[in-house]
Amino acid sequence: MTIIQTDQLTRSYGKHRGVEGLSMNVPGGSVYGFLGPNGAGKTTAIRVLLGFLKPNNGSAEVLGRDSWRDGRGIKKDVGYLPGDLRLYPWMTGESALRWVGQVRRRDVMPHGRDLSDEFGLDLSRRVREMSRGTRQKLGLVLAMAHAPKLLILDEPTTSLDPIMQQRLHRQLRAGADSGDTVFFSSHSLSEVDRLCDRVAIVREGKLVTEQSLASLRADAGHRVTIRWRDAQSADTEPPAFLKLQQRDGRVWAGELDGPVDRFVSWLDGRPIEDLSIGPPDLEALFHHYYENGGAS
Amino acid sequence: MNRGLVAKSIREVWPATLMCGLLAAVFEGLVAFLLPRFEEQMNVQILEMDFVRRIIEGMLGTRIAEQLGPEIISSVPWAHPIMLAVVLSHAVICCTRLPAGEVDRGTIDVALGLPISRWQWMWIDSVTWIGSALVVIMVAVIGNATGSAIAGSGRLLQPHQAGMIFTNLLGLYLVFGSVAWLISSLGDRRGKVITTVFVLIVTSFLISYLEQFWEPARIAGWFSALSYYRPVGILRTGQWPVRDLLVLYGAAAVLWGCAAVVFTRRDLCTT
Questions:
Q1: Structure ipTM over 0.90, yes or no
Q2: Which of A82, A115, A286, B74 has the most Cβ atoms closer than 10 angstroms to its Cβ?
Q3: Same domain, residue pair A13 and A64
Q4: Which of A47, A76, A82 shows the shortest C-beta gap to B110?
Q5: Which residue on chain B is closest to A14 by alpha carbon?
Q6: Residue A289: inside a domain, yes or no?
């Protein structure tokens, strides 16, 4: 089932570029990473999905409903954490949770308290006395307390310490495993690598790629180092799928393009002394997309 | 009614309501108590100094004769700029919270991330606003009655007179509140919105002040909401100012409607 669907979505405003011709499908029960450098249009896309901004062109549907016309209905089943979270300063954590429950007309206190315990959040403190990280934790609790079908998080791990990030990832993964969907924007590659099932990469408002992380990994090159047993073997012509970046006597270092098994077959029977094949280098791939939009 | 929205709205409006209500009540009480004591002295000054008469005429929005009659003395507390400033400040504070105030402080993201429609939010905030306006003006009426009763001058407003002034003042309040709401719906920065509304209020004050003795201002007078607020006329004639009320309440309804349409259709962006 598709939870979020955008078709040629375009939205620009003022001096901001926004998004242009964005088409993506977020499947249910997945953790979907929405990646891009600052200013790529991630927050604009999220604002359109939540009905804060009206598309200039194209369409956006969330949970099968039009995001602009039926924003209220959509948000019954959506939890949202804004990128630049600002809460009412006079509220305490407890009163904010109660308020969200009243607005949603649901008792969110039990699950909210469980989440607060998980994140080590003191609900008795006033928002104005909270540090940025604590406010972020409260924002997450408020977004997740009603166990939404879809969680939209705009750079959720900003200002969270690594332990909290880990706990949040655990929660998000558990939610996705039980059939809920998580859509989160990030520019942290390691976070996406750790957590996501699918990713969309945007650059300058345009979608560069959208695919599963498994397929991205398959696309990503592996870093390879070979130490040949003798200099004569090291003089061999490298295969086309291995881009050598260093060739120093008996040592080759480079990046493998494509699957590893092809490379292992090529090595079969050749006199090597030592071999190391690193994990897929997603970082290099992301940089490639960020910097030139995936063009070779 | 969404309980959460109502509770939040009341929580944000009550400090201003308490402050403005108290100020209005104390001012009304003091002026109603003190003014009759200086009536004789004021009449002498009006006879001797023409500019004092002009100032009082500008303030009351009407011509006055040689003597300040009882109606004029009783209407001064209601037409005094301090009283109007206090009451209209309440309107400006309340009506610039949504959406400009919420966008400005960034909290609109959290609120509109919840299952509420903009129309519902506007409606609930408006009901709270009007409720709080009733409190402020009612408290001012009580203050006035208390001051007059303590002064023992026999100038205590009759209930129907108080009712008419109350209704007229509420109409004026609603017009400026709706103007504030409309400008707030168009803006993102609360400070700029408040400044704009205050400029409009001061302009309206100036027009109704100047129109007493300057012809061009008289032509522009019908643009000024203050021209439709005439406590002296009410006390002199004892008649409901039907035309004034229709203009004020009609204008308020149209302005509020425009504000609602703009708010429900506009883009909201806190960054």
A1: no
A2: A82
A3: yes
A4: A82
A5: B269
A6: no
